[in-house]
Every structure is written in C-alpha cells, then in structure tokens.
Design goal:
Blueprint (H helix, E strand, L loop, with lengths): L22 H16 L5 H4 L2 E6 L3 E3 L2 E10 L4 E9 L8 E10 L11 E12 L5 E11 L6 E6 L2 E7 L4 E8 L6 E6 L5 E6 L2 H10 L12
Antiparallel strand pairs: 1-3, 2-3, 3-4, 4-5, 6-7, 7-10, 8-9, 8-11, 11-12
C-alpha cells in the first residue's frame, strides 16, 4: 500500500462503550450538567429551566469519556453540553467528573429545513506537519429525517470518524479546521445512501456571501 497523501488522525476516538445513560448514572450526570448550567453567566429567568435531558452516545478520547446532552427549556431555548470524566477501571467509579453547558435559541422547531440538529465543542488539538494544527471537535446531534443508520465526519471527503445512531442520536470526535479543510457531518442509511449533509460552518458560509455586500459578521453554528 502506498503512503497516505494526507496525514490526519482518523477514528482517533474510542467507539461508544455503553448504552444511553439511565437510572442512577443518568441522575448523576444530570446533577453535573444542571450545575454547569446554573453557573453560566446568563439571564436564567429569560432562558427558563431545563426539562427532560436527552443523552447521546459516549465517546472517549485522550483519556477522557464524553457524554453529550441537550434539553429544551421552559422558555423554548435549548441547553446543550456534555459531562466529561475518567472512565473507571474494573469495578471502580468514574473520577474527575466535570460538565460544560451552554444555550441557544436556534432550535429545530424554528428551522424546519434542517435535516440534522448538531452541536459542537472543541475539546483539544492535534499538531500536524509544518506547524499546522487541527481542532479536535466533539460533535453531537440527532437525525431529523427517517432512515438514518450511521453518521460520519468527513474532512475534505476523507472519513475521519463515524457513529451508529442510537434513538436517532450520534456523537463524533474528529479533527476540524485543518489545512483549510472543514468538517462535514453526513447521514447515511443502511444501504449507504446519503440522506443529509451539514457543515459545522453553514451559518458562517452564508454570512460570508452576505459579506460581499458589506456584511463582514460571521457566526459559527450553535455558538
């Protein structure tokens, strides 16, 4: 086999090891996530209180396991974030458990054209040739169209991670923004047919088009 033309980390994260959280474990994760939400510097009265939490498949990278989550608030916002911890060995308990939370008013209900509902957060970096670096990015979301079986992350058409859907939800950890290449998240059915494709930077690209007419502002999706 000839040498690879592009040197970039592919499938760097461990696949999901457990089912979606439930019972006491879900309660412990919820406590951490709600605490992170309450510590946010935001107008909590305007945002409202989080409701039922939707958990996403776990993924592990660089010694940490990440379990993302989303929750709709009483005022129609969406809280999104993750709980991170060091996975237990043998029969031990998870350690170093921390959480991150944020919110957005951009929800699927307000965007009927969405086929994927995606959140993302940079969790580290990977250094490549010539000082170039990739943003190792945690991406979690749910399919809004039927028939999806697996979600992939592609960097310049190179598959760098994938995740089987669990209750229409998926979690990915993949390199982004490397050498000018940006991630695309794609949804496939059981036969490998492409059902949906979403860029993490769709809003930024749209704003960039407007920028030619004098608008230089750009906002990354879910930030």
């Amino acid at each position: 086999m000839p040498p690879a033309e592009r040197f970039v980390p592919c499938f760097a994260a461990e696949p999901a090891q457990e089912g979606l959280p439930y019972g006491r474990w879900a309660e412990r994760l919820q406590t951490a996530l709600i605490a992170a939400f309450e510590e946010m510097d935001a107008d909590h009265d305007a945002i409202g209180s989080p409701g039922e939490i939707s958990w996403y498949p776990d993924r592990s990278w660089h010694g940490r396991t990440y379990i993302p989550a989303t929750s709709r608030t009483t005022n129609g916002y969406e809280v999104f974030g993750y709980v991170r911890f060091v996975a237990p060995t043998d029969d031990g308990e998870p350690t170093d458990l921390t959480a991150l939370a944020d919110y957005t008013d951009q929800t699927a209900e307000h965007n009927p054209d969405w086929k994927l509902d995606i959140c993302d957060e940079v969790i580290g970096s990977w250094r490549g040739h010539g000082g170039a670096s990739a943003a190792m990015t945690l991406v979690w979301g749910r399919a809004l169209v039927p028939g999806g079986v697996i979600a992939t992350a592609e960097l310049a058409d190179l598959a760098v991670d994938q995740c089987e859907l669990s209750e229409q939800r998926f979690t990915i950890i993949a390199p982004d923004d490397y050498g000018g290449d940006l991630l695309d998240i794609k949804l496939y059915d059981r036969k490998g047919k492409l059902l949906a494709s979403e860029s993490l930077y769709e809003d930024e690209e749209e704003d960039g088009d407007e920028g030619e007419q004098g608008d230089d502002e750009s906002v990354r999706e879910d930030e």
